[in-house]
Amino acid sequence: MSKFTVLLSAVAVGALIAAAPVVAQDKMSGEKTVNVGGAPMYPSKNIIQNAVNSKDHTTLVAAVKAAGLVETLEGAGPFTVFAPTNAAFTKLPAGTVDALLKPENKPKLTAVLTYHVVPGRLTATSLMKAVKDGGGSAKFKTVEGDEITIKQPEAGKLSITDAKGGTSTVTIPDVLQSNGVIHVVDTVLLPG
Prior knowledge:
globular
């Protein structure tokens, strides 16, 4: 094997390790958990039961409550949720979040939130396989109805392009839930 091949292999493995979530075993429950927003996410709990404990997702949780989607995301699913952090919401123009949280804007808020949800349990591995099989990108229809496009810009990384051409990066993949999987993202996705 050439030195170049060994170096390339080492870089690829390093990228995959860097993209992998930090998994720990909870001493009380014995479950393997991923830490998100300072809290362990338990695979035996549903999306809402876990999300409410993440300090990085308080805006998302407030939005889900305002849109009346709590029961849906507590349901059987399975769902794949691309969960924007609080920092992702701050990237929106000033006043956008406050406006969306108003009762009269519930349909718009619901559309934005359901645009972050794809039916099924799609792990990072299955998303990467779909991208590879799709020749570099894969389209997925969201619960909202519009599509998102998933790409793999570099080994072990996933990006999502929304209907408006905005791009978000998966920062923590594969946060397993009893009713699906969460992938933490750094930018809010917007439907067409």
